[in-house]
Structures are given as C-alpha cells and as structure tokens.
Design goal:
Radius of gyration: 20 Å
Largest sheet: 6 strands, mixed
Structural class: alpha+beta
Number of strands: 9
Helix content: 10-25%
Oligomer: single chain
Number of helices: 2
Shape: globular
C-alpha cells in the first residue's frame, strides 16, 4: 500500500511540475505605445460586410481609402504601413483577435488596453471578419 501511495505522489508531483513549467512558458506580450502595431476595428460603415468578407477584403477597403497600406506575398501579409518582414524572418507581422471562434492561445496572446487577444487561427485571406471585433497586427521580433 505504501508503494502505491508513493507512486501516486510521484505521478502527482511530476504532473504538477509539468503544468507549472508549461504555464510559465506562455508569456503574454503586452503591447506598449512604443511597439509597432496596427489595430483594425471592423465596422459595417467602412464597407458592406457579408458572411464571406475576409480580413484581407476589409484591409483592401481601408487601403483604397488611404487609411492603411499593406503588401502580400504568397498569401501572407509581408508589409504593413511600410514596415516589411525581413528576409531572415527574424521579425514578422503576427495577427491577434478578440474573435473567440477564430483565435487561440497556442501561438501566444497579446494584451492591448487591458484585454487579452488570442493569435488568429487563420491568415488574413481566410479569416472571416465580424462586426465589432478587433484585429491587431503586431510586428514581433524572434531574435
């Protein structure tokens, strides 16, 4: 009986350590005013939204109105407002949203103005926008 108790105590200790380590590795990126980021707030007044309107479509309408500049390559956003991903990918534009159906914390989260945003599960060309949701592009360094 003592061996069984020791076994379960050991298993519990290992599981607790693993949970602690994995939770502590997921740091929340807090966006500061000095960071490079672009917040896109979706509003039907900008363009007529359908259930098929993607973030890329919405961004294109902002581009036409001179409110945003961006470039794509192979379906990826590679430059926003003149800041481009470097060739070595040591930094790049990452997309976060408060749209709970299309975000997760698998690739991290950001905090903006006291609210957490999950990383987008889709790219701009596939992500369907929703009225009232925020989409945040953050230029992140990985070096």
């Amino acid at each position: 009986m003592k061996n069984i108790n020791r076994f379960f105590a050991s298993v519990f200790a290992v599981v607790a350590c693993c949970l602690f380590v994995s939770c502590s590795l997921k740091d929340v990126l807090v966006i500061k005013e000095s960071d490079t980021y672009v917040v896109i707030s979706v509003s039907g007044s900008q363009m007529a939204l359908t259930g098929e309107t993607t973030l890329a479509d919405y961004m294109s309408s902002l581009k036409k109105d001179g409110q945003l500049d961006f470039e794509t390559s192979d379906g990826m956003i590679t430059s926003v407002n003149g800041i481009a991903n470097p060739a070595d990918w040591s930094s790049c534009w990452m997309l976060y949203t408060d749209d709970a159906e299309n975000a997760n914390d698998a690739w991290g989260t950001v905090e903006y103005q006291g609210k957490l945003y999950g990383s987008s599960m889709f790219g701009a060309e596939s992500l369907k926008v929703k009225e009232g949701c925020l989409y945040i592009w953050v230029f992140q360094s990985f070096s």
